[in-house]
Write a structure and sequence with these properties.
alpha/beta, 7 strands
């Protein structure tokens, strides 16, 4: 049973490099390091899929081609049991975290993230790893400058990342890649203790 690395976002050129597609952006960086072939569209699953290997463990990368709010439909095609969910790692944007920060957690609620909510409903468990990637600007106290109100939030997360933000996300991608390697080779607890610091 392979590990499933899922990068969440929206399909289509117009969503490339938007904050809401950060999960897909980071999944590409991890795939560059551990993937064994290019992403290919799988019509049955309605997702871009690629294989890979971390140490001795097989890995399947998935980028759902459903929109964010229906991510669970594609992921449920690969994760068909609670046991399989234990090897699922979902990567997605979080506008409550400053850009450059990552948070790894396991068996938690969706926190109001529609993509995550869709996955929990589709696979009928919260028992999987999620890696939240900060996309918000930082205020003077080092916290996220979070937009308020549905319209402002939507405009922010669907907004394009600036060049310097993309540069920062590439560095974040390398850290997430290292975290996933520790998670797969050793344990999720070790990955959390190392990469949730700071």
């Amino acid at each position: 049973m392979p590990y499933i690395i899922a990068g969440l976002g929206n399909p289509g050129e117009e969503y490339t490099n938007t904050r809401h597609n950060t999960g897909r952006f980071i999944a590409d960086i991890i795939h560059d390091e551990f993937g064994k072939g290019d992403f290919e569209f799988n019509k049955k699953i309605n997702a871009l899929i690629a294989d890979g290997k971390i140490g001795t463990e097989r890995v399947t990368f998935i980028k759902p081609e459903t929109f964010m709010n229906n991510s669970g439909k594609a992921i449920a095609q690969l994760v068909k049991s609670v046991k399989a969910a234990g090897k699922l790692v979902v990567i997605y944007d979080d506008f409550n975290l400053p850009l450059g920060r990552i948070r790894i957690s396991y068996n938690r609620s969706s926190g109001g993230h529609n993509g995550l909510e869709s996955i929990i409903k589709a696979i009928k468990t919260e028992g999987f790893v999620r890696i939240r990637i900060g996309v918000a600007p930082e205020n003077a106290q080092g916290n996220a400058k979070t937009p308020h109100g549905d319209e402002k939030i939507e405009k922010f997360i669907l907004g394009k990342l600036k060049d310097e933000e993309l540069k920062e996300l590439k560095k974040v991608g390398k850290r997430v890649s290292d975290a996933v390697e520790v998670l797969v080779r050793e344990s999720r607890e070790k990955a959390m203790s190392i990469f949730n610091a700071g």
